[in-house]
Design a protein that fits this description.
Number of helices: 4
Largest sheet: 4 strands, antiparallel
Number of strands: 4
Helix content: 40-55%
Strand order of the largest sheet: 3-2-1-4
Strand content: 15-25%
Distance between the termini: 27 Å
Shape: globular
Order of helices and strands: HEEEHHEH
Number of domains: 1
Radius of gyration: 16 Å
Amino acid sequence: MNALTKTTEHQARSRKMYTGRRGPQGCVVWVIAGNGERKPLNPRQALRNHSPTGFERGYGGSGPAQLALAILAEHLGNDDAALNLYQDFKWACIAQIRGPSWSLSSEEIGTCLARLSEQQEDTQPLADPFPF
């Protein structure tokens, strides 16, 4: 079990939806809690400032990196884990988003993180069978 698996398994999950759309101010993203409460997603630029101009999606640049970091920091509730995972999450999930409006559920984010964890485990180097 790696740090990613531990973080996602031990994280108390509430059902949330992350929704975004293109507006006059650029890409606007909301977090909708299971009770229907809606709030803007904090860009977490103090954690790492990739994009002072805001969020983006659909490619692998600085705006999508900021969005990936913000979503994971909010979803996981763990800044260190978010910093360790957001670049892979950006490529696996955020860069794939198409269209003017989109949404990601907490379950979809968890599924993406689990797949990334499996891929990470599959690429771990094998122990040297002849350590002499």
